[in-house]
Structure to design on (327 residues):
């Protein structure tokens, strides 16, 4: 490249160096900047560097010059703080639906948003290898296609995976093709779900995104159970424990006061709550009645009691007896 063309890139090289090499603990000295530019075949004087720094500041970059023996220039403000990047890296690392290979690729991209010094710290604290991860490498393609179908108001088809008794991945229902109307993607208990209207059974269902294969966008317009009602994703998720379906019902349940935070964490602040006595309260909770719900209630201890409706109380008793008979 001609020297004149190289000189035009001087400002970009300076910005790149500030982004990758500098932070408050590691400012870049003027001599280091000049040496870096010289290595790239760009000749510069101190005065021109001062002008370049002023230009970058005028454009909105927060560039600070510190004085003293260890002084120099550094980029003081970035799109993401180190703590924010750490949260993103941890989320990717912990995510079960992202494969180990894709997790490492994403973490590498995230660390590029930090300076080189902070990037080393981020990578040093990442643990991906021994975590339970999906094996489906087409997950991000699935997500992209589902979003596109939702945006275009179209149905999709796909095949669904499951594990055999031999722990081998296979197609569910002998490779049956599912036809659904996608309405939302949601994160629930470390898993990513597609919420969709099943055209065959005519009900809303949810599917693990990491178990979807051979997805196709169809020409048919999306359908829903009730075209006149807005679909509330949050309400749907709150009703289905562990994202397993069941009969919708509103239960009245008695809880000890010590479990108020647990109840709010699960159902939110909008539920109806009444003080029963000094040590307990009742709450009306919208749920899908299922073994997963009963398991959750059982895990909270013997002080939790289902009050109504009566038929759910009887089903819960049968659930407990079926467990008791196993021992």
């Amino acid at each position: 490249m001609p020297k004149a063309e190289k000189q035009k890139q001087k400002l970009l090289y300076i910005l790149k160096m500030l982004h990758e090499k500098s932070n408050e603990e590691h400012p870049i000295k003027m001599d280091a900047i000049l040496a870096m530019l010289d290595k790239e075949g760009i000749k510069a004087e101190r005065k021109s560097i001062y002008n370049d720094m002023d230009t970058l500041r005028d454009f909105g970059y927060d560039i600070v010059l510190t004085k003293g023996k260890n002084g120099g220039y550094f980029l003081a403000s970035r799109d993401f703080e180190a703590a924010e990047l750490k949260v993103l890296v941890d989320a990717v690392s912990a995510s079960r639906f992202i494969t180990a290979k894709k997790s490492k690729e994403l973490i590498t991209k995230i660390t590029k948003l930090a300076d080189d010094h902070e990037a080393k710290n981020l990578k040093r604290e990442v643990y991906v290898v021994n975590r339970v991860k999906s094996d489906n490498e087409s997950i991000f393609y699935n997500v992209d296609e589902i979003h596109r179908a939702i945006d275009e108001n179209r149905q999709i088809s796909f095949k669904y995976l499951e594990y055999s008794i031999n722990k081998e991945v296979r197609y569910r229902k002998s490779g049956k093709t599912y036809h659904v109307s996608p309405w939302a993607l949601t994160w629930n208990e470390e898993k990513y779900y597609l919420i969709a209207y099943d055209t065959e059974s005519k009900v809303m269902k949810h599917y693990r995104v990491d178990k979807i294969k051979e997805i196709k966008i169809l020409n048919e317009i999306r359908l829903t159970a009730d075209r006149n009602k807005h679909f509330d994703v949050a309400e749907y998720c709150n009703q289905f424990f562990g994202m397993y379906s069941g009969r919708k019902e509103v239960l009245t349940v008695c809880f000890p006061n010590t479990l108020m935070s647990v109840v709010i964490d699960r159902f939110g602040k909008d539920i109806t709550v009444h003080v029963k006595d000094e040590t307990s309260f009742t709450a009306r909770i919208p749920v899908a009645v299922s073994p997963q719900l009963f398991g959750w209630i059982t895990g909270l201890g013997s002080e939790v009691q289902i009050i109504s409706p009566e038929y759910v109380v009887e089903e819960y008793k049968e659930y407990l007896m079926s467990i008791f008979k196993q021992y």
Summary: The chain is about 40% helix and 25% strand.
